[in-house]
Amino acid sequence: MSASPVTPRTKTQVAADLTEFISSSPSSYHATATAAARLEAAGFTRLDEREKWSLEAGQGCYVIRDGAIIAWRIPARSAVGSGAAPGFRVFGSHTDSPAFKLKPGEEFTSEGTRQIGVEIYGGPLLNSWLDRELALAGQLSLADGSVVLAQTPPIARIPQLAIHLDRQVNDGLTLDKQRHTTPIIGLAEIAEADVIEILAASAEVDPEQVIGHDVYTIPVQSPGLFGAQEEFFASPRLDNLLSVHAGVNALVDVDAQALDSIALFAGFDHEEIGSNSRSGACGPFLADVTERIIASAFPTSTRSDYLTALASSICVSSDAGHAAHPNYPERHDPHVRPRLGGGPLLKLNAQQRYATDAVGTAAWSQACTAAGVEYQNFVSNNAMPCGSTIGPLTATRLGMTTVDVGPALYSMHSAREMVAIDDVVALGAAAKAFLQG
Ligand code: ZN
Question: Which helix (H) or strand (E) holds 185?
């Protein structure tokens, strides 16, 4: 049984929309651009952090800081200009995913092949990246100080050693993080363009002008539905572009006339490496933007009014979680068994690895009820410590009541993760109901 019965047509449409969103978001920098394009199409205005802001009731705006984006809609009936500022309803997520990042001193030859040096970004399931054609994508900085997005065709692969040369491999694959993860991008004797030239060509810029890069390996196989009833969706970067997709679409859809709080979507960068950056959830981005929204929309407001607004705010932190795996049933809590297709997760952890408390639970329950979707509890097996999310960081920085939720996946941090398409629909509906309030 599905939490939210989805017609085949809806399922196909949602899968196509998510495919388009993820495929055009190969890096966090691209993800902010993809989100921005959807927001622009819905009439949102881009603001510059280096300029003074002046905001109006009902207005939708967004701001990009590197690979992070924050967008919001002010209630149409806000008494903008007076000191009475509403609170925020924040839907938070992250734009980055595990991958390999291109090192400087990019290219070298070995055994007649051309290879590129890479570092491991976040915690990928290394084995899942073997034997896949990989593109490179990210941002390039140019000599004039400008930044461009780049995305190459499939040029790289990390080939696994043949079983004949490693007869014990099926008893346990061990990969050396330096030697065994180095991608091959060509044959040494036919090098016509180095990797920077290939990146520059994809961005249509002069390679001589490229000064710096933040570039990652990207699996190129297109996302898609599969399963006996096409109930599953496989894709790279479901963690956490699935939540970014839900949040952006939800914000675009909110009805400003019916809003009581400021509806806000946040997509932070660098969650997979700990969130300590100027565009990560430990940084000041959300605090900076929320304070400026209140000060710009309510010019007579005071710092105390801003803190009052925060005190009446609530944050949903949406990030991928785990469904109970049929092949590893012992890895999960023995009694709380979230399943694919059972609706979005409510994530609970006594150590506050997830920020959810009873108050946040009630808010999430209300949103799911309003959306007509069921949610499922997630707790870890006590012997299997869970990961964390931007939730506790946001709660710690801003003091908002925060609740951790998210879609249930299999294969989290694989180069190709999987989700139930019904859960994509349900998360989208719950996100919209939450932001609408
Ligand atoms: Zn995540």
Answer: strand 184-187
Q: Which residues pair with 210 in a beta bridge?
A: 142
Closest CA to 182 of 243, 118, 90, 112: 118
Q: Measured in angstroms, how far is the CA atom of residue 390 from the centroid of ligand 1?
A: 9
| Start-to-end CA span in the chain (Å) | 28
* Surrounding residues of ion ligand 1, Cβ less than 5 A: 239-240, 319
User: What pTM value is reported for the model?
Assistant: 0.96
For residue 336, the tally of other CB atoms under 10 A from its CB is 14
Structural domains of the chain, ranges and CATH numbers in brackets: 8-97+236-436 (3.40.630.10), 99-219 (2.30.250.10)
CA of 346 to the centre of ligand 1 (A): 14
Residues 6+ apart with CB under 8 A from 58: 73, 74, 75, 76, 78, 256, 257
Read off the pLDDT of each residue in 11-22 and give the average, rounded to a whole number: 96
Long-range CB contacts (within 8 A, 24+) of 120-123: 120/177, 120/181, 121/96, 121/216, 121/272, 121/273, 122/96, 122/97, 122/98, 122/272, 122/273, 122/413, 123/98, 123/272, 123/413
Q: CA angle, corner 361, sides to 63 and 392, nearest 5? A: 50
C-alpha distances in Å from residue 323, one per residue of 216, 420, 427:
28, 10, 15
Q: How many CB atoms lie within 10 A of CB 31?
A: 30
CA of 272 to the centre of ligand 1 (A): 7
Please write the tens of the pLDDT for every residue from 403-424. 999 999 999 999 999 999 999 9
Helix or strand (DSSP H, E) at 368: helix 358-371
Tokens 């149409």 -> residue: 76
In degrees, rounded to 5, the angle at the alpha carbon of residue 319 between the alpha carbons of residues 313 and 323 is: 130
The backbone torsions φ and ψ at residue 289, rounded to the nearest 5 degrees and listed phi first, read -70, -45
